[in-house]
Amino acid sequence: MKRRMTAPREVLAELREDFSLCGKCKLCQAVMAQQCEDPRFWRNCPSGTRFRYEGYYAGGKLEMARCLDLAEIEPDEMMKHALYACMLCGSCQDRCYPVKQLHPMWVFELLREQAVQDGWWPEGWFAETYDNLEKTDNVYGVPAAKRVAWAKDLKLADALSEKVEYILFVGDEYSAFGSLAPRMKAVADVLDAGGVDFGILGGKEVSSGALLLQLGDRDYFETFALANIELFEKAGVKEIITADPHACTVFKEEYTKLADIEAYHVSQIFNTLIHREALKPSKQVKIKAVYHDPCRLGRRMGVFDEPRDVLDHVPGLELIEFERARKNALCCGGGGGAYLWESEYARWVTDERLFEAEHVGAGAIVTACPLCVRLFEDALKAKKSKMKVYDLAEVIALAL
Question: Exposure of 75 by Cβ count < 10 A (0-12 exposed, 13-18 middle, 19+ buried)?
Fold first, then answer.
């Protein structure tokens, strides 16, 4: 019998109360103003703020779901654009749930799944991505032999042939881009310095499927998820570490429905190692840095304190905050897959975040997500800015 992760699966109709009871109060459009002093940064919905039309805010998309549920409208091109311009950052849900106990982001995720099932999703916008996945098992089309290039000079255990306590899952971003290779190496170096017993899956590792789930293609997501679960079981390892918050989220929310595993983001591991004094950052890292909360790591997983605590232990580093920080944090521009088909819009969001970094006087941005790192670096290069971007592991490696 074929293994399934979601049988029966949750469907949009189960959230009928959530999309039917929206009173259009517009709380979802902004930040928690008590925690953000400057009105310049009070807007926080990327798509709504950029396109300035009600359909791009959470209230508009909830109305779409309600009307579709009642068969009052037929999907059109504008609906597709509004639904897939959403970065699924979760800011709307963080505003709405404490007041009304509604889950707009869950509605949008399931609305995308329904769009895929009913055949009206914009499949052509992601044709290259799907071609890449089918040919290489990687979102960016990088073959297995090249995905392990970052580990070329490292003596890392093969988790499929050697007994290890943890699997270090690399993910699509770190394994695909040369600019991220030193960052992934830093992750491995810091874990090794902390005495963590880990191995990697090497060229056998495939995409976590996180992007496919964001796009609404749950069936294809499960193909990749089950392939990875089989590898975890073959290795006999139940604890997974990753520096990719997108992968970590689906491990914790989806993979655990079928697999007996526990997943950790590296920031959590680093923090534990520092407090156990297995890691002792001692070298000066003299930068004035602002920490950017990745949407999946922060709002989705609730990991806000651990990365900051880690940075507080780095000698010489002055840590400051964005106006929009923690649950108020603005997306980097990489959420929801929009960067794959609407690059100008994604860059607009990235530039807005960089403007905010400059506004608070940062000389560098530190974050804990490879997609955030890549988008920030590309935008800074285009702007010819002198601001630096650091992966969290990179900063710890410098301090060691």
Answer: middle
**100 burial level (CB within 10 Å; 0-12, 13-18, 19+):** middle
Which of 366, 361, 360 lies closest to 388 in space, CA to CA? 366
* pLDDT tens digits, one per residue of 170-196: 999 999 999 999 999 999 999 999 999
Residue with token string 């189960």: 14
Tokens standing for residue 38: 């400057």
| Domains and their CATH numbers in the chain | 12-121 (no CATH), 130-272 (3.40.50), 281-399 (3.40.50.1860)
Strand order in the sheet with 318-320: 318-320, 288-292, 364-367, 388-391
Count of other CB atoms within 10 angstroms of residue 71: 7
How far the first Cα of the chain sits from its last, in Å, is 50
Phi, psi of 258 (to 5 degrees): -125, -30
pLDDT surpasses 60 at 1: no
Query: Residue 162: exposed, middle, or buried by beta-carbon count in 10 A (0-12, 13-18, 19+)?
Result: exposed
β-partners of residue 288 are 318
Task: State the Cα torsion 316-389-240-326 to the nearest 10°.
Answer: 80
Asked whether the CA dihedral 203, 204, 210, 211 is positive or negative, the reply is: positive
CA angle 210, 52, 339 (to 5 degrees): 30
What's the CA gap between 88 and 212, in Å, rounded? 13
Q: At 305, which helix (H) or strand (E)?
A: helix 305-312
Whether the Cβ atoms of residue 220 and residue 212 lie closer than 8 Å to each other: yes
User: How many other C-beta atoms lie within 10 A of the C-beta of residue 302?
Assistant: 10
The values of phi and psi at residue 325, to 5°, are -125, 165
DSSP code per residue over 161-222: TS--SEEEE--HHHHH-GGGHHHHHHHHHHHHHTT--EEE-GGG-----HHHHHHT-HHHHH
**Would the pTM count as exceeding 0.90?**
yes
HSE-CB at 351 with a 13 A cutoff on CA atoms is 12
pLDDT tens per residue, range 320-363:
999 999 999 999 999 999 999 999 999 999 999 999 999 999 99
